[in-house]
Amino acid sequence: MTEGNTDQNQAGSKVKTFPVPFDLGEIKENITIKTNTPRKHSKEQIINQAFKFQSQGNLSEAAKLYQYFINQGFKDHRVFSNYGVVLKNLGQSQDAELSYRKAIEIKPDLADVHYNLGNLLKELGKSQDAELSYRKAIEIKPDYADAHYNLGKILRDLGQLKEAALENQKSIDIRFLKNINPKYRGNCLKNISLSKSQFRQDLFALCELNFKKNGFFVEFGSYDGLIGSNSYLLEKSFNWNGILAEPQVSCHEKLKEIRSASIETKCVWKSSGQEILFNEPYSYKQMATIDSLSKNSHEFYKKGKRYKVTTISLLELLDIHNAPTFIDYLSIDTEGSEYDILNAFDFEKYKFRVITCEHNFTPMREKIYDLLSKKGYKRKLSNISRVDDWYVYNS
Questions:
Q1: Residue 58 in 3-state DSSP?
Q2: Separation CA 370–CA 348 (nearest Å)
Q3: Could you read off the pLDDT of 331-385 as tens digits, one per residue?
Q4: In the predicted model, what is the mean pLDDT of residues 118-127?
Q5: Which is it for strands 275-280 and 289-290: parallel, antiparallel or unpaired?
Q6: What is the distance between the alpha carbons of residues 331 and 375, in angstroms, rounded to a whole number?
Q7: How far apart are CA 301 and CA 362, in angstroms?
Q8: What gap in Å lies between CA 69 and CA 353, rounded to an integer?
Q9: Which of 53, 228, 316, 388 is deepest in the core (most CB within 10 A)?
């Protein structure tokens, strides 16, 4: 499980622009503004041409038209909003802020403009002002996932960690609910407060399996069986059985206490019977991993507690725990060894209906994708799965 920064590949910092109001095909030729000749173009023609330049990346020409429009005394929230985006991209941050604020003055209920202003203020180091802008965007549009996400980042920077975590989770849940099959949305809402998964992997699996009861899961590393668990909800609310594998010594007591599934304390690896060094950090314990994988990584690994663990292959894990040949759900989170484990596995002997696998945006991500694709698995919802990839079997 990734406890650290999961900001990579997120949409939270993207600016929002007003779209071109009319079909660009209506413009037969580019508008050229000459200040010493009578104005012959309508307001909408000027706006339309400016939007066209902006969409093409021709920011300097877009800026000229926006400024011309403003100089004529016209007031339009779309112009001031998009001009703010252009000015920001041209490095004129103070003017961009003024333009955003003018758009808000004209039309105060613009969630996207409050959001863009928040992004700009954050970049300018005005964290408290940025917080207010994000909160206003959310007040106008409560399901604004990007605003919740960026508010969470600001609150984290301001030391308000509990509320930051809540805002981050709201952004995850909003994106998840918007992207899943609508027919399962009601069931997800009913169970979302019971989910322990970091990105709602458990609910994704249930959606793919029609909210199946009495299924079978395999989860490694499962940590303490509760925090960030992708199988807790399945076991406790849907009567699933399964296998939990976790080599981290400090987790074993709690794992055995709260879970009824079969528990394996050996370290899942590409082969069985090896003794390898395991690294359990004193902080960020959920990031514990094979010691060789922790080198040149996060600082907290350097002072981690190291001890030897015995390995077990995924194939042997399933064999000795009498797993069914068609397993409903496999959850993999080993902080770096995922590809090695899967690459050594016999996919002909066992199959999985759903797989969620952490990748942390490392080069192993595409190797895992290539491997699983060749084995008949299709990646889904990569726009919301963040540091994971989620797969379903094409039977």
A1: coil
A2: 17
A3: 999 888 899 999 999 999 999 999 999 998 989 999 999 999 999 999 999 999 9
A4: 96
A5: antiparallel
A6: 17
A7: 18
A8: 57
A9: 388
What is the Rg, in whole angstroms, of the alpha carbon atoms belonging to the chain?
Answer: 26
CA 188/CA 373 separation, integer angstroms? 28
Q: Are 238 and 215 in contact (CB under 8 A)?
A: yes
Amino acid at 389: D
CB proximity list for 253: less than 8 A, separation 6 or greater: none
- Quick count: other Cβ atoms within 10 Å of Cβ 254? 14
Instruction: Name the nearest CA neighbour of 329 among 179, 202, 146.
Output: 202
Cα torsion 317, 322, 324, 329 to 10°: value is -40
Q: Is the peptide bond before 221 cis (omega within 30 degrees of 0)?
A: yes
CB 244 within 8 A of CB 259: yes
Query: What is the C-alpha to C-alpha distance for residues 257 and 304, in angstroms, rounded to an integer?
Result: 25
Which residues have CB under 8 Å from 334's CB, separation 6+?
Answer: 220, 221, 268, 289, 290, 341, 358
Q: Report the 10 Å Cβ neighbour count for 348.
A: 8
C-alpha–C-alpha distance, residues 54 and 62, integer Å:
5
- List 380's β-bridge partners, or say none: 390
Give the integer Cα–Cα distance in Å for 192 and 203: 8
Q: What is the pTM for the complete model shown?
A: 0.84
Q: What pairs with residue 244 in β-bridges?
A: 219, 263
Sorted by sequence, the CB contacts under 8 Å of residue 385 that are 6+ apart come out as 199, 201, 204, 356
DSSP secondary structure code for residue 103 in this structure: H
Q: Which residue has the tokens 């939990």?
A: 244
What does the pLDDT look like over 36-46, one tens digit per residue? 444 566 788 88
